[in-house]
Design goal:
three-stranded antiparallel sheet; 8 strands; 3 helices; five-stranded antiparallel sheet; alpha+beta
């Protein structure tokens, strides 16, 4: 999906509580020494692209992710990055309508224009 199409579906707004939490907590970052992809969270130990062990990354701050601290579709407050992989990123969010935590999954930008990637992502 093109960026302009995505903006038609979701209204993204700043969120106070998530922005405060974001400034107080940093997520652990790791990097593959071979392909240089970045990953956040503590679960990832090996690169999903080439199988190399991940190393700590001081040059990348996953807390600087532009979706953190926003509200999507006037309902989902994005709180933190839960994980990243070859297809996209999964975020922890708070659903204000149902008053419960939810996971939001976003397809990576480099795959947005690939029909097969979008089909696999949705199924």
């Amino acid at each position: 999906m093109a960026e302009s199409t995505r903006r038609e579906f979701f209204a993204i707004e700043p969120a106070g509580a998530a922005a405060d939490a974001q400034s107080q907590a940093l997520t652990t970052a790791a990097q593959c020494p071979v392909c240089h992809h970045h990953f956040s969270g503590t679960d990832a130990r090996f690169c999903p692209f080439d199988g190399e062990p991940l190393v700590a990354s001081n040059s990348w701050n996953p807390s600087a992710n532009p979706l953190l601290g926003t509200v999507i579709d006037k309902r989902y407050e994005v709180l933190e990055v839960l994980g990243e992989g070859g297809m996209g990123t999964v975020y922890l969010a708070q659903d204000s309508t149902l008053d419960r935590p939810v996971a939001l999954k976003f397809l990576s930008r480099h795959l947005e224009q690939q029909d097969e990637a979008r089909r696999r992502f949705l199924h």
